[in-house]
Amino acid sequence: LLPEFQSKPIRGFGFRGEVLGILCLDGLTVRYDPEGKPSDKIRGVLVNGEALEQDRTYTVGMIDMFTFGVGYLSLREATDVEYLLPELLRDILGEELQHPERFQEAFESRWQPEGI
Questions:
Q1: Which residues are registered as beta bridge partners of 112?
Q2: Rounded CA separation 36/10 (Å)
Q3: Which of 16, 74, 90, 115 has the fewest Cβ atoms within 10 Å of its own Cβ atom?
Q4: Taking a C-beta distance cutoff of 8 angstroms, is the pair 27, 108 a contact?
Q5: pLDDT in tens, 89-109
Q6: Quick one: pLDDT band at residue 28, thresholds 50, 70, 90?
Q7: Domain ranges (residues) in the chain
Q8: Helix or strand or coil: residue 47?
């Protein structure tokens, strides 16, 4: 993600943070060139260890404000959007924290720089 987006102030939509930050990933591994041109840094994406297929449709989970075009503009192009209510992200996180094996998974690097 471009630095100007990472530090972009976000207001509203129930967002309690201050800036957009960087995408957190699960099930994905992104290889990138930190020295590449700003819009051409990503070198490859793996989905559960398999190469991303450009023409395939994937199901992803994200917070609702992304579907409104806040932050990651391309995410608002999602089709077949389903909002899971009344669950809140904190409830889902609380459930996941009941499984100790998830802690180790949280430390796995999903953004992998190339050429360093």
A1: 31
A2: 27
A3: 16
A4: no
A5: 788 888 888 998 888 888 889
A6: very high
A7: 3-113
A8: strand
For residue 75, what are its two tokens?
Answer: 């995410």
Give the number of C-alpha atoms closer than 13 A to the C-alpha of residue 76, restricted to the C-beta side: 7
Q: Which residues contact 83 (CB under 8 A, 6 or more apart)?
A: 64
Contact between residue 49 and residue 110 where contact means Cβ atoms under 8 Å apart: no
SS3 state of residue 73: helix
The answer to whether the CB of 76 falls within 8 A of the CB of 67 is yes
Residues 46-94: pLDDT tens digits? 999 999 999 999 988 887 778 877 777 788 888 888 887 777 778 888 8
